[in-house]
Amino acid sequence: MEVVLTIAGSDSSAGAGIQQDLKTITAHGCYGATVITSITSQNTLGVHASLAVPAGVVASQINAVLTDLKPAAIKIGMIPNKAVAEAIVEELKPYLQQHPVPVVYDPVMVSTSGFCLMQPDAIKYITTHLFPLCTLITPNLPEAERLGDCLSPYAYLLKGGHADGDVMTDVLHLPDGTKMEYSTERIVTRNLHGTGCTLSSAIASNLALGCNIQDAVSKAKAFITAAISRSVDVIIGGGNGPILPD
Known about the structure:
Largest sheet: 6 strands, mixed
Domain Pyridoxamine kinase/Phosphomethylpyrimidine kinase: 11-242
Radius of gyration: 16 Å
Order of helices and strands: EHEEHEHEHEHEEEHH
GO molecular function: hydroxymethylpyrimidine kinase activity; phosphomethylpyrimidine kinase activity
Structural class: alpha/beta
CATH superfamily: Ribokinase
Strand content: 15-25%
Strand order of the largest sheet: 3-2-1-4-5-6
Number of strands: 9
CATH topology: UDP-N-acetylmuramoyl-L-alanine:D-glutamate ligase
Mean pLDDT: 93
Shape: globular
Low-confidence stretches: none
Organism: Xylanibacter ruminicola (Prevotella ruminicola)
Oligomer: single chain
Number of helices: 7
GO cellular component, one term: cytosol
Keywords: Kinase, Transferase
CATH class: Alpha Beta
């Protein structure tokens, strides 16, 4: 069984973050290992608080997993500050030199409810030191606008869910200039919590199973569309409910 390591924040409502990553990885037939970067207090109505895990503890978690479980792919989500970003890079860089497994980074900056999840000083370090380690970066439109030209040298999937219209189009940009579009009909539902986490974890799982980037994205898009469709009428909490991977 292939191991997928997720490095991300914890969501107490289990609709996003580490908890949603694990559900998605398991649904793909892989084994999920975890490194928690931040502990958040949140529910379907929003984020109440966030506490960054000390960088040394993050580094220790990564080391513990890498030295024993040998992941076939790595997904990175919420990075709360520069110190945690440094810990991630310092642990992953030497490992990836010896074991060049795919890395998918979902640059989580602000929650759906508007809560800031990354300190500004982390962004420059991440674009300079973490981006070169990544196989694929998966920003949404607001994140891509903030990152600007920093994305262009790398493979990235620009997610179109924040755009208006009945059709949502994600665009895969490859470093050689190749572009591929993935369009789906917009599904009207309040249950969209954790979509970014689900998509990036699905891509990482597909890469762990041997898919190339294009196929990994295509399969992940089909997976998340099915998950959203399955969740349309589910009532969990009083706000932006989770999607249900299966």
